[in-house]
Structure formats: C-alpha cells, structure tokens
User: Fold HTH-type transcriptional regulator RipA from Gordonia soli NBRC 108243.
Amino acid sequence: MRMADHQYPETATRLGASPILSIAHGAVAPAMKLPAAHSHPEPLLMGTATATVTVTAGDRDWLVPPGYGLWIPGNVEHSGEILRRGEGFTLVFAADRSPIDWPEPTGVIVGPLLRELIDHLQRIEHNDPTRPAAESLLFALLRPASSHDLRLIMPTDPRIRPIAEQLVADPADDRGVDAWAAEVHVGARTLSRLFAAETGLPFARWRTYARVHAAIGLLVGGDPVGAVARAVGYRKTSAFIAAFSRVTGHTPGTYRDANRPESNQTLNRNSTTSPSAMT
Assistant:
C-alpha cells in the first residue's frame, strides 16, 4: 500500500457497486510521506498488522499500533505519520452505501480474521460470488473497541514528543528519566513535569501504558504471552501480567481471544466508559 496516494479510487482497487470503494494494502515505512491534513466525503478505515502510525483526526491524536484500526467518518479532516515500518491497510467506503455510520473517529481491534477478509477482498473481483458474504462478515467484525482498551495520550510538546514516539516504536527501550533528559537536552525535572502536564501521567506510568498498549496489538494477533512480555520490555512474564492486569483490569489471555464473539461480549459487559482503543 502506498498510503501517500490518497486519490483513493484511482490508486487502489476499484470495487464497483460494493460499499467498499477501494482497498490499499502493503508495506509502509517512516520514510514515506503521508498527505497533509485533508478531508473527503468518503469514510475510511485504516489500520495495521505490524506497523505503528499516529493519526490526527478531528481534534485528537490517535495512536494506531499493530492489531488496531481507526474508522474516520467522511468530511473529518485527518493526517498521519508512520512511526514504525510494517504492514498497513486503508479501506475507503461509499458515503451513501456504508453500513457503518459512526459519527466520530472510532478505534477498532483488527484481529487475524478481519485482516484475512481484507486480503481476500483485495484479491478477488467485484463480481466474485464470495464477495457479498465476505463483506457482510467484515462489517459484522467492525465493532468499536471496548472501553477498557487502553487510551494512550501522545504529548505534543516538541521536547518530549520524540521520546513518546521512540517508546511507541520500541516499547522495550528501558531508558529512564535521566537518560532521556540527557538525550533531548532538558532537565530531568522538566521532562517529568512536561509528561505529567501533557499526558496526565508520570513518565514511568505513561511508559507502562505504552508497553501495555503495544502488547494488546500483539496479543490480538495471537502472539504467546511470554513472547509479548519480552517484546515490550519485561524480562519476567509474571511482571508483565501484573502490569497488564493493573492497567486493563484483565489478564493478557483475555485479548488473545478478542475475536471470539463470547469474549467480545464479556469485554463489553465490563466496559464503563466511552469506546476508544487509541488516542
């Protein structure tokens, strides 16, 4: 996918009378330039399998890590930045035929089944006999992420934004406040104050949130809990499970089953705030 090409019907697969106007899918990398802030009548779904991106949509910054997607309604101004290379996708929908009418940008979990459906729909012709069933299942799977999925606020201050972006791209980075302060040439107290003011969290707690946020995407993709713990910076799986449970209120295993209908129902019953997977 070349996400920089935003003339959707012309640069991706055109799908006739389908509610899906186009699908773009492929590798993305930080060196790729994304479009400046823009809007269009067509709603879209963008997400990643292995990449990490940030999207400014409406008045919010959204962090989209592996295993997540973001629904952007039509006429909502948006722009993006690729933080970590990997596989990503964009689906564009007909403004007058989309079965989804969420009025605001909305986070979704993009599990293996949804990714396979996107790949299948990109490969087949618009008149393929399997298309109606595949599209119906795709729309059924597009549900707002449950409210307990982690909200991660990205700071905007240019002195600490690079730190946040680096920790999102590499959550296993274990440098502390003093090391980061030296890296960006600010005092340790100033760095701590900025993180608390910009994100509402102390630096160490924000980093824990960033690690858990990254872990959710990996768990939804089916990675083993121990491997996920190491990937996001925990040497001991037990420490990871404890941190994960404190942040989300659930064990990591809950997210490995996130695509099962009964698991989604359990998660939604435990939700107490408005849906959001990313911010």
